[in-house]
Amino acid sequence: MNYESKNEIRQVLETHGITVKKRWGQNFLVNRHAREQIVSMLECKKTDSVWEIGPGLGALTSLLIPAVRQLIVFEIDHGMIRALTAVLGGDAPVVVRDGDAVKRFEDTAKELGTPCRIIGNLPYSSASKIIAKLIELELFPEKMVFTVQKELALRMTAKPGTKNYSSFSVFCQAWFAIHIETDLKGGSFFPEPDVVSSVIAMTPDKKLAAKEEELLFSEIIRTGFASRRKMLIKNLSGIAGFSDEKKRMVKEFLKNAGKTESARAEELSVLEYIKLVRLLLEGR
Length: 284
Ligand code: SAM
Description:
Layout: H1 6-15, E1 28-29, H2 32-41, E2 49-53, H3 61-64, E3 70-75, H4 78-88, E4 94-98, H5 101-112, E5 117-121, H6 127-136, E6 143-149, H7 150-157, H8 167-175, E7 176-184, E8 189-190, E9 197-204, H9 211-224, H10 232-236, H11 244-256, H12 270-282
Parallel strand pairs: 2-3, 2-5, 3-4, 5-6
Antiparallel strand pairs: 1-8, 6-9, 7-9
Helix pairs in contact: 8-12, 9-12
The structure holds S-adenosylmethionine (SAM).
């Protein structure tokens, strides 16, 4: 299939009775250079098992097939799976997982093991859910490369004290080193979205050491950022059983970190959150 031809894409969709669904972020990559660049960023080896999320008609899949040992694709749209199978040929060496990828990761990992790499031109509306789920399940391949809306890429890579810095920034950066590789304008896709996309590369950089650290860390960042305008300490008071002694420890911690008692969640770096978690766990 000629993935750069909008006419051919239209025809394939029509043949299989598919209408493009915005809710599933169906914007197909029609920029040959971008497709090749995204796949080459994944740095696949011939022995790798790779997951692709949202293969669509196969713009990335077709380039991955000859480059890897095993390719598992997650696609929610059954019509798209029919079209993809027809385009790639029925005997293409691809394992298809149908349904919402977020609900299929766990059983697929149990059955086929953790992949070496994960790739996807992700649907805009569920990209953060998909990435959060991979982290939550601790599926840590050697590398992940995703196309996401630029705003999400900026949130995931944001540094403390900036407007994009959120609990999702801290969460992602506690597990991965994340780098924005390039931006793609709407014209790289069909239908053309009215937002800019970024291609991000994520490599594991797990900074938390134990399960109990992970649990408290998640709770602290979730509640810490719950109300951005409130002081961190006020937000943390919302955690069940957050005693006066713990409040005192947080105040002491902030002072030692060179911040005031009224510091807000966005002022602490990822490493400072991890230090705070360790301190609170020691003090139990
Ligand atoms: N990879 C193709 C490309 O680059 O041309 C299609 C990418 S398109 C942006 C996103 C794809 O993800 C669509 O095929 C859509 O049906 C699929 N999708 C959307 N939500 C999904 C989900 N929750 N689980 C699995 N696939 C999903």
